[in-house]
Amino acid sequence: MLLPRQKTPGLTLPTLDHGTFDLAAETAERGTVICFYRGLHCPICATYLAELKKRVPDFAERGVNTIAVSSDGEERTRAMSDKIENDGLRFAYDLTLSKAREWGLYISTSRGKTSIGIEEPPLFSEPGLFMVTPEQTLYYGSVQTMPFVRPHFSELVSALDFAIANNYPARGEYVGAV
Fold it and tell me: How many structural domains does the chain have?
């Protein structure tokens, strides 16, 4: 399990149009929002990523980079980027399932074609949303076992405003006896 204020796993992946993404080399003042999504087969992911795309400037204004990540290959990732008419969200691809598991993501098996007629991969990771500090420690994390009921990006932007104004620390860090 990932813990707030502790170092996250590394993450180095190819991107569609921005070279190699390396979490350890990110230079944003306040960190990086990493949105792990299921893949091209998921219609809910397309809607979710379209919303993130709209919020990229809001995060950037607050000193936060953004990236969308999946285990899809380059071709399916490009198709997802095109589907949401992307014009600013970085997309990384080829996330290994072992790396997805390091990040605490749940892994699902294929159920065939989805409601939009696209075949699910044999195995893929379920969604997760993380904010990682410039020191590569976990500030915020949320994982789902299925595609439904994800955090709203507008709420995360508002939460960032509060956290910045109040120097609010990452919470959930306690690991002692209870």
Answer: 1
